[in-house]
């Protein structure tokens, strides 16, 4: 019998003891009348009132002293020391506690506030009862779980034992809350768009495929937060919309890439490109100050400050400066040759993929904050043509710590041009490029009814992970794991 099996067997016997003493080890009700956080905050008032309170939580540590026991209770809001005395609760109740309660159990205690000689806020219990009997032991709270694979598989334990990790997700919730508030305060309407699509518009990525049994249709999980749907809403007369939601991309895993993650996209009719750029900068500075309390960050070996001037980098000239290659004028063979010289791994041999791979090599050399502007049309199939050069588009990306953390377009609203670009994407798909954009002819038809000039922007939780200085996987509550063999 393994150690865990032995512990489980012993705890099952303790459940029998509780049952024999008329105590349900898993009752459906607790009489808790205050959280541990609120109890601590109001401690002086509670202490002076001598009023009894009922507290509930998980037993995190136990320290016995003859006929008395101190233990720490944790309820998710805070932690408090509980004092249990045989003289106060009686010999039988005290013995039952000693015989049946383990670390990890949830208990309820009732009693009065008192302060130890060292000034620690505590409660002296005159009764206790079991709320939920644990069958397996929690790891030592001081050392936690050291094995990384085990940390992810048993994320609930890692979160229980690691206050810093819990704070990551409290901060992440605030990050999206601040994003939502920022947009709502500026007149954006929060909407929801389909997550199951017949064509995956709005980005270039390999999708997850599924099947709709009722309609007998093959469908895809979305790869963007409803870009083409939100732009349909611009046609429908909505002026400003946004959505925060999950997207799915059937691609590789890296410190910055996952297959399932949260993105935000907003669209604003009649907003010009320059005003959109100012709005995005304002959003990032707001998030930095309100969520992290600073505009200065260090991440992945880079340092940057949102309060600095945001440099504008021209896509073509930046790549040429760093590699000696003009991506507009170079052939596919020339791009391949340069990538091989630089030792850059790349997928796909069409010009769009090769151009993007060369840019990604250059991107790693930029700390930011910066706006990358004037993308070649070939890598921005949904963006409006640049008025000064029909080979370029009105697109920008935010660059931080060598990464792309936000993308914007002066949205293409010419249905004839859009149809031609979709034709080119279809050729890429037919040639085997699984990341090319699927044409959406229904969207083209909607655009034919007239779509106003529109600015669109999207950013995902990669931004949050970079500002926090952690791999994006670490900022997922429950990252996907391969099943144990």
Please give a quick description of this structure:
The chain is α+β, with helices and mostly antiparallel strands.
Helix and strand topology:
Elements: H1 3-20, H2 36-41, H3 43-49, E1 53-65, E2 68-74, E3 79-85, H4 86-89, H5 91-100, E4 106-115, E5 121-132, H6 148-153, H7 155-161, H8 163-185, E6 189-190, E7 196-197, E8 209-212, E9 217-221, H9 227-235, E10 240-248, E11 260-269, H10 273-292, E12 296-299, E13 302-305, E14 311-314, H11 315-323, H12 332-342, H13 351-363, E15 370-373, E16 385-386, E17 389-393, E18 395-400, E19 403-410, H14 415-430, H15 441-448, E20 454-460, H16 462-468
Parallel strand pairs: 3-5, 6-10, 14-15
Antiparallel strand pairs: 1-2, 1-4, 2-3, 4-5, 7-9, 8-9, 10-11, 11-20, 12-13, 15-18, 16-17, 18-19, 19-20
Helix pairs in contact: 8-10, 12-13, 14-15
Describe the protein.
The protein is α+β, with helices and mostly antiparallel strands. The protein folds into 2 domains: 3-138, Nucleic acid-binding proteins (OB fold (Dihydrolipoamide Acetyltransferase, E2P), Beta Barrel); 159-310 and 368-475, 2-Layer Sandwich (BirA Bifunctional Protein, domain 2). The chain is 36% helix and 26% strand. The chain contains 16 helices and 20 strands. The strands form 5 sheets. It has an 8-stranded mixed beta sheet with strand order 6-10-11-20-19-18-15-14, with helices on both faces. Strands 1-2-3-5-4 form a 5-stranded mixed beta barrel. Helix 12 (332-342) runs parallel beside helix 13 (351-363). It is elongated. The two termini are 21 Å apart.
């Amino acid at each position: 019998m393994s150690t865990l099996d032995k512990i489980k067997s012993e705890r099952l016997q303790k459940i029998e003891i509780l049952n024999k003493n008329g105590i349900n080890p898993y009752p459906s009700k607790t009489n808790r009348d205050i959280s541990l956080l609120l109890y601590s905050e109001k401690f002086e008032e509670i202490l002076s009132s001598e009023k009894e309170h009922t507290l509930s939580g998980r037993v995190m540590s136990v320290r016995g002293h003859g006929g008395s026991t101190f233990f720490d209770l944790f309820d998710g809001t805070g932690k408090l020391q509980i004092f249990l005395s045989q003289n106060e609760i009686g010999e039988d109740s005290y013995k039952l506690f000693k015989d049946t309660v383990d670390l990890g159990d949830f208990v309820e205690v009732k009693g009065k506030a008192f302060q130890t000689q060292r000034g620690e806020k505590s409660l002296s219990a005159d009764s206790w009862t079991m709320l939920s009997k644990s069958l397996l032991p929690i790891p030592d709270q001081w050392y936690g779980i050291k094995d990384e694979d085990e940390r992810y598989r048993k994320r609930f334990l890692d979160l229980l034992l690691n206050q810093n990790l819990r704070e990551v997700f409290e901060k992440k919730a605030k990050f999206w809350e601040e994003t939502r508030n920022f947009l709502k305060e500026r007149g954006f309407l929060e909407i929801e768009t389909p997550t199951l699509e017949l064509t995956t518009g709005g980005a270039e990525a390999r999708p997850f495929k599924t099947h709709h049994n009722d309609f007998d249709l093959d469908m895809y999980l979305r790869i963007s937060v409803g870009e083409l749907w939100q732009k349909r809403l611009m046609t429908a007369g909505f002026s400003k919309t946004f959505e925060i939601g999950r997207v799915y991309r059937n691609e590789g895993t890296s410190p910055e890439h996952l297959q399932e993650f949260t993105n935000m996209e907003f669209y604003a009719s009649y907003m010009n490109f320059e005003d959109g750029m100012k709005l995005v900068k304002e959003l990032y500075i707001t998030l930095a100050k309100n969520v992290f309390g600073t505009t200065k960050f260090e991440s992945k070996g880079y340092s940057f400050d949102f309060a600095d001037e945001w440099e504008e980098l021209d896509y073509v000239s930046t790549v040429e400066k760093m590699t000696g290659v003009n991506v507009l004028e170079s052939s596919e063979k020339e791009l391949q040759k340069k990538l091989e010289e630089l030792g850059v791994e790349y997928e796909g041999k069409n010009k769009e993929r090769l151009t993007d791979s060369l840019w990604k090599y250059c991107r790693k050399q930029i700390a930011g904050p910066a706006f990358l502007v004037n993308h070649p049309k070939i890598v921005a199939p949904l963006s409006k043509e640049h008025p000064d050069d029909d080979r370029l588009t009105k697109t920008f990306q935010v660059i931080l710590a060598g990464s792309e953390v936000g993308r914007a377009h002066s949205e293409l609203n010419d249905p004839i041009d859009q149809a031609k670009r979709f034709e080119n994407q279809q050729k890429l798909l037919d040639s085997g490029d699984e990341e090319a954009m699927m044409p959406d002819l229904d969207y083209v038809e909607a655009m034919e009814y007239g779509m106003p000039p529109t600015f669109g922007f999207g950013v995902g939780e990669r931004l949050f992970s970079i500002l926090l200085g952690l791999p994006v996987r670490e900022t997922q509550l429950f990252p996907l794991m391969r099943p144990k063999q």
